[in-house]
């Protein structure tokens, strides 16, 4: 039986109701996040697994996420569900590898962990590159050089200032301006999701940091 009023659109209430056994709320949540399944699938390495099997595993992961999610922890459900679906998909990929004899039973976990870690590193790099591409050229240059994001060694602010014809203090200001823009949800959402830094508390902290800097 559904305990959420028809006028209630709060997702947390729907999740609690679904966890209590309400089929209406469960179905509504599954349909609402159907698109997330295909987004997650596009970002995974599928190996030789059948696409239909992976979709089925993603549905299972989404269903499990609804049952296990704790709205009180402050994280976004879409992020939690995405991780649950990725884990379920990788379990299916792992089963396929075992069946094909590509990995040994004892070493499967180590192999899988290494592949997932490599995938995450690539995804984080792509997300950071996307964010940097949205910055003004001058700010992007400072961020890249300060943190060595172009593969070169990180540079001191004074050294960058000499190249740009400005003071080290000005470089520091430009760096903070660039970081402030990168903290904006529109630029940081994907990166935060990958690094599990997309809780309400994390966004509020970033907002406070930006407000403090821009007020100065």
Mean pLDDT: 79
Number of helices: 11
What is the number of domains? 2
Strand content: under 5%
Order of helices and strands: HHHHHHHHHHH
Largest sheet data: none
How much helix, percentage-wise, in residues?
over 70%
The helix-and-strand class reads mainly alpha
Alpha carbon gap, first and last residue: 54 Å
Strands, total number: 0
> Per CATH, which architecture of the largest domain?
Orthogonal Bundle
In short:
The chain is 72% helix and 0% strand.
How would you describe what is shown here?
By secondary structure, the protein is mostly helical. The chain has 2 domains: 9-102, RNA polymerase sigma factor, region 2, helix turn helix motif (Rna Polymerase Sigma Factor, Chain: A); 123-216, Winged helix-like DNA-binding domain superfamily/Winged helix DNA-binding domain (Arc Repressor Mutant, subunit A, Orthogonal Bundle), CATH 1.10.10.10. Helices cover 72% and strands 0% of the residues. Helix 1 crosses helix 2 and helix 6 packs antiparallel against helix 10.
């Amino acid at each position: 039986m559904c305990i959420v009023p028809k006028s209630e659109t709060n997702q947390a209430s729907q999740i609690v109701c679904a966890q209590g056994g309400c089929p209406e709320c469960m179905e509504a949540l599954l349909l609402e996040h159907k698109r997330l399944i295909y987004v997650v699938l596009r970002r995974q390495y599928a190996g030789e697994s059948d696409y239909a099997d992976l979709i089925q595993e993603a549905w299972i992961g989404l269903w499990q996420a609804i049952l296990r999610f704790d709205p009180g922890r402050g994280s976004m459900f879409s992020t939690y569900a995405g991780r649950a679906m990725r884990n379920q998909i990788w379990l299916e990929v792992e089963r396929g590898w075992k069946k094909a004899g590509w990995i040994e039973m004892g070493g499967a976990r180590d192999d899988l962990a290494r592949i997932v870690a490599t995938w995450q590193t690539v995804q984080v790099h792509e997300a950071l590159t996307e964010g940097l591409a949205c910055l003004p050229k001058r700010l992007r240059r400072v961020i890249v050089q300060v943190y060595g994001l172009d593969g070169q060694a990180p540079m001191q602010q004074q050294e960058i200032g000499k190249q740009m014809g400005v003071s080290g203090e000005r470089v520091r200001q430009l760096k903070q301006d660039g970081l402030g823009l990168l903290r904006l949800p529109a630029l940081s959402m994907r990166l935060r999701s990958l690094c599990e830094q997309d809780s309400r508390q994390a966004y509020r902290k970033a907002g406070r940091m930006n407000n403090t800097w821009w007020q100065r």
